[in-house]
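Exercise 7. Predict the joint structure of the components listed below.
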Amino acid sequence: MKRVYVNEEWCLGCHLCEYNCAFANSGETYMPKALKDQKIYPRIQVEEGDGVNFAVSCRHCEDPICVKSCITGALSIDNGVIKVNTDKCVGCYTCILVCPYGCVMPASDGHVIQKCELCTQNSCGEPACVKGCPNQAIVYEDRGE
Amino acid sequence: MAINYMVPEYEVVRDPQRCIACRVCERQCANEVHSYDPELNCMRSDETKCVNCHRCVSLCPTHALKIVKNNDTFKLNSNWSMQAITEIYREADTGGMLLSSMGNPNDYPIYWDKMLINASQVTNPSIDPLREPMETRVYLGKKPDHVERNSDGSLQINTPPQLELNVPIMFSAMSYGAISYNAHESLARAATELNTYYNTGEGGLHKDFYQYGPHTIVQVASGRFGVHKDYLNAGAAIEIKMGQGAKPGIGGHLPGTKSVGDVARTRMIPEGSDAISPAPHHDIYSIEDLRQLVYSLKEATAYKKPIIVKIAAVHNVAAIASGIARSGADIIAIDGFRGGTGAAPTRIRDNVGIPIELALASVDRRLREEGIRNNVSIVVGGSIRNSADVVKAIALGADAVYIGTAALIALGCHLCRSCQTGKCNWGIATQRPDLVKRLNPNVGYQRLVNLVNAWQHEIMEMMGGMGINSIEALKGNRLMLRGVGLNEKELEILGIKHAGE
Amino acid sequence: MNYVIIGNSIAAVGCVEGIRSRDKSGSIAIIGDEPYSVYSRPLISYLLLGRTDEKRMKYRPDDFYEKNHVKTFLGHRAVKVDSKVKCVTLDDGTMLPYDKLLLATGSKPFVPPMTGMDSVKHKFTFMTLDSAKALEEVLQPDSRVLIIGAGLIGLKCAEGIADRVGHVDVVDMADRILPSILDEESSAMMQQHIEKHHISFSLSDSVSQFTENRATLKSGKKLDFDILVVAVGVRPNVELAEQAGCEVNRGICTELSCVTTVPDIYAAGDCAKSHDITTGSDRILALLPNAHMQGIVAGTNMAGGEEVFDKAIPMNAIGFFGLPIITAGSYDGEAYVTREPGIYKKLVTKENLLKGMILIGDIKRAGIYTSLIREKTPLDTIDFDLIKEHPQLMAFAKKDRKIKLAGAKQKGDA
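Solution:
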């Protein structure tokens, strides 16, 4: 299936992916309206190091420990995409406890979690982080895995 | 503190309704124009540092930024322009020569824009390139004077070495050092895919790029940086750089700050040392000397590679070209006064040399008059901006063109003309690792391929319109050109008629 | 193939999923003593909080059993397991022969004998949906609630009802709260935080006597209450296992494959022991994720697979009144502790491994630490100084990041 892969040698650490993610999941159609004067809660996070940057979002593991560990059944795999049913989620953070990539995070209200759903649950159509990456540092590809 | 006489050239205009303070502009500006004020939760700008490279504008996700000319102005004076005054202030501040980069930006005539291309109507039908074959392939190199046959009547194949190009467009010399590793990789991979050539410039060839050798022209310049036997044999052709359009009469200069790591290694010089090419080749003071170098290089490469001699377009260009055509060189490359550079003294860039259009026309005519046009192919560069310029150059007698600036623009260059600072925000004219990685060659090479493919389509459309289906039939075909707004002398030099004639 | 699963909670679901990953056609029977399709027990405190409801508490969609072709016997108890003839008998006499049996019998609340308990009118445990519903029925805005037990269950119960009653008292014999997952400093921090929500603690103390609406503690302290909740701990349901001849030692003993000492009988979930890799000991890790993973392994193996459950660690994600806690592993080793207002962080290392952690307040990306514990990543292969600051993948070597993020293959992979 198509996955988001990270080419860290091309990541500029510009953080555009975080803003594009937050915008894509805001439900708004105008970025300033969605994000101006807001703390953003992106589902992708840029790590910054000494001359190295990369963006990390859910790997959509084939054998996802977050799904196995979810105490409510809110996390499930749908066509390879790990999705969260925020109606069921109670924000216990067990998924945060177990995700080895650190890619599940509390949503802005703190009562449920959020994670990358490859923009399948918003109107973006394809992952907004990849679409907006200026240097192909993240790509959305099917490498036949 | 001394008085700052200068005023910022640009103003950074930020739309506060749109700016979301994402700080992308701040992170992307190597000139440190933008900064974030956490107390006000807003972005600030210091426009004195802005070079108008548009990196921030291009990456701003909300289109909140624009860079405008600062309309703060000195008292208007048609003679003493703001630029003239500012340059004096700058020189008075530092006592140093003014440095600039890319091509001459001044308002000299652009002859390409004063020539128009013909098209067929009624009597000689035009050709539709989408339906009929159209040949844009060219071969560069010395052509045989006459046909020779064996005793059994079969053809003797003794063509000197040639470069084969799918399109008459090559990427001109830009050294590794002046431009980045990733820019070089983009050019090398694009040249390979397009079946044309890129040119190492005078910085040598990085070992990673030997794999692209069959599509590489290796340059030998006055500093001989990075020149060795393997290097010479790695390329498809060797170019002797006698001059450069942006700075005729002087050598190259790579500041020590750009001569880092692999750049220095590739040039075979100590890291951090200025790489200063001498103005002349110290072993060349005559055509005979040039001939010696041409044949030395041929010897070193077993006569398998064409030798290019590149000169700047200067006053006596036709006579110089005539000498080169007799020196054993296979190709002459002529670089017009608008050609780009990574760094040149401003006065030289802006005042030395002549337009490539006039140089080309006179060289082509002179070589034909002397019956030695077939000795060499002619490649011209120095601000070929689009496919129409290519068509016009070929109609004026060129075999192919070099594009440098256009290629860099395809890679993202915004012609801010600040290459000499080494802080290119587009990852092109820099060696700073954090900036170099902004140019992903996977993106860059594809953009170059797209550009040349687009131009090829356009060239074929224009050729078809003229009723010409082979680039060879366009070469030197001045009847396909007409001048507009040119005087008798200009028309005479270009060898074309005026529109309406 | 006949699969029978005794128990209808998380391990049972894992088992069904494990079986069906290999065997689409074998018949599966589930016996559950509660009359509900599978729901998540830890959610009962969220139910009282109003953050979920009975419908949303369902652990799997309504069609789970149907889709997986599972025959259910809900509201029934298994009363006998005969491992000789391989048959389970239900309380109504139904006999269910099996080829492979899973004991996912879970645990039951432990209620110690206390003098005068009989005189208490409203007394509850807090483990099942029914127990939560029963408790909810008697809650009044001015109720005084006495909870015996300051562990995970007792305090989750306290949180669930705190805003719906007048006052909550918590009594525990231990000298601090949540002793099973927190150290002394973090216990004190959590106690302070919880006390802000009209919950009072009587620690190092226990009830010596109940008299209807009053508990007299050993210390002599008297606590008046309307409602009593006993949450001192749980005991695994091992009677059927013992009957079937399985070795039981404070939990059903299992191999890494989840098989018991009796062939074709497996055990998973809160009734079964697993191998805690952080201490090297076999013990019950009564945690929902472990129950599910154990169930999957058991199910897969029951259907002929060869899985092992070899990455069990104690771990908890819990929180009280908006202050999240994440803990994992064991705390025996060298500690690295940082404190900020509202934040406590302890990382415990031993023999070049991260062994355990306590995070309170800031739990961002905690799973990166958990995976270091679970995968036993040698700390000298990562930049531990960096990752100590906050969990990040930057601390891993570039080649490991390529495997994690860029799709590079592990050495040796095809």
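Discussion. Residues 396 and 476 of chain B are 5 Å apart (CA to CA).
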